[in-house]
Amino acid sequence: MTYSNKQVWFVTGSQHLYGPKVLEQVAADSELIVAGFNQSEHIGVDVVCKPTVKTPGEIHAVCQQANADKNCVGLILWMHTFSPAKMWISGLNELRKPFMHLHTQFNAELPWGEIDMNYMNTHQSAHGCREFGFIGTRLRKERKVVVGHWAKQNVQTEIDDWCRAAVGWNESQNLKVARFGDNMRQVAVTEGDKVSAQIQFGYEVHAYGLGELAELVNQVSDQDVASQIDCYASEYQISDELFKDDYQVEMLKNEARLELGMTKFLVDGEFGAFTNCFENLAGLTGLPGLATQRLMQNGFGYGGEGDWKTSAMVRIMKVMGQGRTGGTSFMEDYTYNFGARDQVLGAHMLEVCPSIAAAKPKLEIHRHYIGVKCDTARLLFTGATGPAINVSPIDLGNRFRIIVNEVEAVKPPAELPKLPVANALWEPKPNLSIAAAAWIHAGGAHHTAYSQSVTTDMIADYAEMAGVELVVIDEDTKIRSFKNELRNSAAYYGLANVL
């Protein structure tokens, strides 16, 4: 199990109409399905089989239990037989955890020569799930519907995607973001309503003065700094010349101290994400570079220039993608390559997570020129090739929007010997011309959460759980229809907020 401390409950609906023998088979079939999920390499969340619910009271009780159980992140609901949907009204109205409607049946193929009415009554998911589907729609409940035989890989992968989104939503509900300093001055998109964000997404955002962090950084012992540098030497490529230069060694010690101090601050305060800003560095030796990269590599979310929305999104997506190939990083669309194939070179001043690196990163010390001019240790690498997504959560004033652009990361056509920061090169879908125009129409930020382990569907599921607008820029995007989609979404969410 990738998430050993998180559970998704599997609840099967039926009724007493069919008698005890049918209910025994319903319970046995449910247990076999759950056992199959837990033995599958395609599902990384612990699925827990709950007793079959047969009455409004049992349904209401299991929904209340799910709400109260901190390890339960969501429910998979399946109707093995016909479960009259009025029984589900009170339970679904109280359920505060996300749920998936699994539209499957126990047997894959029909035993044509043996089918009788007992078989039909016992195996009538095709019938029962439609009744259940109606009440979900009637109650206006957002939910995922997965259709297909439960043992097939594509169905299990879809289930896992949703389960990961549910774990991400659970993280969102419990996340705390620490802000060291304020937002970059005069920048619009990194601002936002923190109260509205907490109401919508659940996470808390707290600001701290630099002095509080500097105090912990200054308390780090020389012995701990030396041990940390040994760790760097074992994990990254470092030239022998660096260790022969006392000045460069001192710069490396600065980063070790920053990392250890920041780690203690975040761990002690139970923070899962943080921001800082190059304009607010009083008491620190400089803008953390290697320190921030390693904190991200260890699972913390990060946003530059005080971008708390992106910081939270990076952390949530790191949790979603846990155990999968590929990483997640804070990213920025930095500059374009208008060539045979238009491309985007993504980077940031210092802070790109090595979880996306194509090869073992190099640790080097270079001059940092923005905010404070000083030499700073950082990891240099180029991102791995392959499919990826860029995700931008923005505050539109009356609602939040999450924007996704699907991209294909590629290898740079030439070396970048003078670029002193980590980077990734990608080709946006459907192409840069349409993707950039659509991104701008949607109001997407220059900062993103970039990931090769999280899929568009997972972000779509998360957005549904949060009740926020999602717009996707992909291979099928056309500007005219995309602008209409934005207009229609504005009308829908405006009306939904009123209602």
UniProtKB/TrEMBL annotation:
Mn(2+) binds at E305, E332, H348, H447. Transmembrane segments: none annotated. Residues 176-323 form the L-arabinose isomerase central domain. It is an enzyme of class 5 (isomerase). Pathway: Carbohydrate degradation; L-arabinose degradation via L-ribulose; D-xylulose 5-phosphate from L-arabinose (bacterial route): step 1/3. Its EC number is 5.3.1.4. Keywords: Arabinose catabolism, Carbohydrate metabolism, Isomerase, Manganese, Metal-binding, Plasmid. One of its GO terms (molecular function) is L-arabinose isomerase activity. Binds 1 Mn(2+) ion per subunit. One of its GO terms (biological process) is L-arabinose catabolic process to D-xylulose 5-phosphate. Belongs to the arabinose isomerase family. This is L-arabinose isomerase. It comes from Saccharobesus litoralis. The gene is araA.
